[in-house]
Design brief:
- With about 100 residues, this protein is an alpha+beta fold.
- It is built from 2 helices and 5 strands.
- A 5-stranded mixed sheet has the order 1-5-4-3-2.
- Helix 1 packs across helix 2.
- The chain is globular, with a radius of gyration of 13 Å.
């Protein structure tokens, strides 16, 4: 069963900004959408290289994950996310942030 993706306000705003931006921003948006599709279907997809992220500034009890949008690129972009909250029996993923790897 695919996951339901939920977005923080900042992640949602960034996607909208890139979608309506210049050609370079639109190209980045396309890469992000492709990665989000993989994340939605299978967070362990080998192309995402998902792994637990150790220093995301949120509640320490929340396990935050990091998945690749790009690789082998200067300032490669990542998606930062956590599992949940599930609703009506459907598993969910909350996208916290999208941006260059710190």
């Amino acid at each position: 069963m695919p996951y339901k993706l939920r977005f923080s306000p900042s992640a949602s705003a960034l996607l909208e900004e890139l979608k309506n931006g210049d050609p370079n921003q639109k190209a980045k948006h396309k890469k992000i959408v492709r990665a989000l599709g993989r994340l939605e279907r299978d967070p362990r997809h080998r192309g995402l290289h998902s792994h637990q992220y150790e220093s995301f500034p949120v509640d320490r009890d929340v396990k935050v994950w990091d998945s690749y949008v790009e690789n082998n690129t200067p300032s490669a972009w990542r998606i930062f996310w956590h599992y949940g909250p599930d609703q009506d029996g459907q598993p969910a993923i909350t996208v916290l942030a999208i941006g260059p790897h710190p």
